[in-house]
């Protein structure tokens, strides 16, 4: 697998074109000495369950994987914890306010955005909400639905990390309910 550093030709600090491979995961500027490490972006995924053994599932309104199933979540903002990020993303996409989170697991992923392949570290959280009356599909979500954990089919989900995450959720379902 080719590392995405090949996409960067100029030093992000000084703009020099003497920006060459330092090692597998970094480039170094021959003019200013800056070393750039290309690390994955932090992304979050929320697993929200109800008292009926169901998980809240979204349908993607935008590319990539438009029209496929997904779980609420998204990229963390600067100066935001992963917990704050998943809470914000869930509120933006579903209208729900999360009152507790519990880290479950992480899965590396690639995500194509604006024609560029981004590397992400998708962190999955079990999220607790007390009130679902505000449930509304918004932001980059076309619709929301509750699906029984046993009826979740990973092949219906468009993003590779979410497909893997669904399989993990099904394996640990007893700890989620």
Q: If you had to describe this structure to a student in words, what would you say it looks like?
A:
- There is one protein chain.
- This protein has 177 residues and is of the alpha+beta class.
- 16% of the residues lie in helices and 38% in strands.
- It has three helices and ten strands.
- The chain has helices at 82-94, 160-171, 173-176, and strands at residues 19-23, 26-29, 35-37, 41-48, 54-60, 69-70, 73-75, 100-113, 116-128, 141-148.
- The strands form three sheets. Strands 7-4-9-8 form a four-stranded mixed β-sheet, with helices on both faces.
- Strand 2 (26-29) and strand 3 (35-37) form a beta hairpin.
- It is elongated and about 60 Å long.
- The chain starts with 18 loop residues before the first strand and ends with a helix.
In short:
By secondary structure, the protein is α+β, with helices and mostly antiparallel strands.
Shape: elongated
Number of strands: 10
Terminal CA distance? 38 Å
- The string of secondary-structure elements, in order, is EEEEEEEHEEEHH
* Contiguous uncertain segments of 5+ residues: none
| Order of neighbouring strands in the sheet with most strands | 7-4-9-8
Structural class computed from helices and strand pairing: alpha+beta
Number of helices: 3
Largest sheet: 4 strands, mixed
- State Rg: 19 Å
Proportion of residues in β-strands: 35-45%
Overall pLDDT score: 95
Kindly state the percentage of residues in helix.
10-25%
């Amino acid at each position: 697998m080719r590392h995405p550093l090949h996409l960067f030709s100029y030093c992000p600090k000084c703009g020099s074109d003497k920006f060459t491979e330092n090692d597998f995961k970094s480039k170094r500027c021959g003019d200013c000495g800056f070393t750039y490490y290309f690390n994955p972006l932090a992304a979050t995924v929320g697993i929200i369950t109800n008292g009926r053994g169901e998980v809240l599932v979204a349908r993607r309104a935008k590319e990539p994987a438009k029209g496929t199933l997904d779980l609420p979540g998204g990229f963390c903002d600067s100066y935001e914890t992963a917990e704050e990020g998943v809470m914000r993303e869930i509120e933006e996409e579903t209208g729900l306010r999360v009152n507790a989170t519990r880290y479950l697991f992480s899965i590396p992923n690639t995500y194509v955005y604006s024609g560029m392949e981004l590397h992400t570290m998708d962190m999955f959280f079990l999220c607790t909400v007390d009130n679902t009356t505000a449930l509304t599909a918004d932001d980059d979500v076309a619709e929301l639905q509750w699906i029984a954990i046993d009826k979740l089919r990973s092949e219906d989900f468009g993003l590779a990390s979410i497909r893997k995450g669904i399989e993990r959720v099904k394996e640990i379902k007893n700890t989620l309910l």
